[in-house]
Amino acid sequence: MVSAMLTALILRQTVLRHAPRQRGFTLIEIMVVVIIIALLAAVVVPQFLGRVDDARVAKAKQDIQAIDTALTLFKLDNFKYPSTDQGLAALAEKPVDPGIRNWRAGGYLKKVNKDPWGNDYQYSNPGAHGEYDLYSLGADAQPGGEGTNADIGNWNLDQ
Length: 159
Prior knowledge:
Blueprint: H1 2-18, H2 27-78, E1 122-124, E2 133-136, E3 152-153
Antiparallel strand pairs: 1-2, 2-3
């Protein structure tokens, strides 16, 4: 019995001596990884932030093209574009105007969205640039401007 206990004790010490020791990360290693991630973020994030403005301009151009198509369909059905007073709402809800006889059931748009900066799209008929003007005032919501503040209209979609 003593020899069995002695054997078990020797076996236990041998297993403990050869068992792998668990080792965690040191504070220095963790700090190095955090610093590397912060440096990468400092380089990459500004590049993505510049793309947000480009995406908003592209979205405004796509919206204007879609509304432009709806206005064309409205004219094909009713032989004229909505008046400035009727505005773009005439594409989603039938105007009261008795001259609009062939308004399409369901409308031409489900709803008129706001521009990517949260402002209403502007519409005037007649327009200064053509039969009508359809435009967003850009990021600053003011006429004119440059860059993301520039007006985006049906007359300058190719720029």
